[in-house]
Fold:
Amino acid sequence: MRYENVLEAVGNTPLIRLNRLAKGLKPRIYVKAEFMNPGGSVKDRIGVAMIDEAERKGLLKPGGTIVEGTSGNTGIGLALVAALRGYKLIFTITDKQSREKINLLKALGAEVIVCPTAVEPEDPRSYYSVADKLTQEVPNAYHPNQYENPENPRAHYKTTGPEIWRDSDGEVTHFVAGMGTGGTTSGVAKYLKEQNPKVKIIGADPIGSLYYDKIVHNRLGVAKPYVVEGIGEDIFPGTMDLKIVDDVVQVTDRDSFLMTRRMARLEGLLCGGSSGSAVWAGLEYARKLSAKDFMVILLPDTGMRYLSKIYNDEWMKENQYFEGETSLKASDVLALKRRRGKVKALATAKPTDALFSAMGVMRTHDISQMPVLEKGKVAGTVFEDDVLGLMLKGREIRKMIVREAMGSPLPVIAPEARIEAVLRCFTPDRPAVLVRTGKNTYDIVTKYDVVNAVSTASEERE
Structure:
């Protein structure tokens, strides 16, 4: 093929079948190799689309400055456009991004401002806020704002989605992608579902991101730090259509990085950590699919940007991703409880139940906390200590209902969540989590259950 400029080479990336990693799984599993774009990532697509639209609307003038908050790849995509069209570049980026990304942005002519990761989005130091401020202060500046720009999902609706449909001969049944701004997921999903409403959209979400709780449980969780780059959010961008995602698989940093390295060794695919997240989630989900299914997993970027981190043995050891070789998941802990005959029907209460009756159920089951469900959703928790505190304050618990005494809900995790993720959910006064076992059905895992499972697994290995 021959192109007149580098931007014409964006898109039409291949579908590549997974072989060794998919061994033993029934469905056909292909990956969409977005790292083969000229800038090395899926973000090349939106870089072109957002600037084209800004030029059409007169929002970006000749000689102007592009200002954007980026995890690196969007900046690189924008830099390709700027190089050809003569724009200046200022990018804000978080301090968890790889040195390779920062160096590459500078090599492409950008000014890079590094901002702290562990601050709220509204904090004036956040990379969102700094980008907004620079846009107001720099003359003739344009802020594409990939988090709210409709050209982000539209680019994938126009290109990525049609390519997947075409190259799968219309056979795709499941699409898996990490969720960041949501543009890729939303745009591809919209197109595929228009072609076949039965296509399932599976999101891969790092533990600590807000998406899982919002999509699966329709509640606002608490954002926590995670290391994998480019996916997960502590906000809900306007470019993310939450309703179009059919299911979400949570992925730990460790699983993401170890899968990323396995992809290179077993399939020859040198990709970034978010690709590892998507493949891990896809392979886990594929266990319940049939030979009739056709899964496409999107690989966002190249691994060349992570040689100092994910592909560096010392970095992996320092961050303890090589340690703790247990592969136990929450589902394994529940299975062990069943083997020991410790699993009973989960005792629950309704917000309108009499509190005194709920306490009687807790005494019967010898438990110190009980989930409160409302229309199948987790609404809160009755804690023995909280009720005792009310009694000591002179409250008449015989006249109270559960809603008046219940505390915050226990964390809800997926069955495939690894032990490390379960442990991070525990707090001194909340030593339990709920495991989603089906639609509106749950089981409970306590710290004692985890300790027992790890101990048993160690004994069995010996």
In short: Residues 68 and 145 are 6 Å apart (CA to CA). The first strand starts at residue 15 and ends at 17.
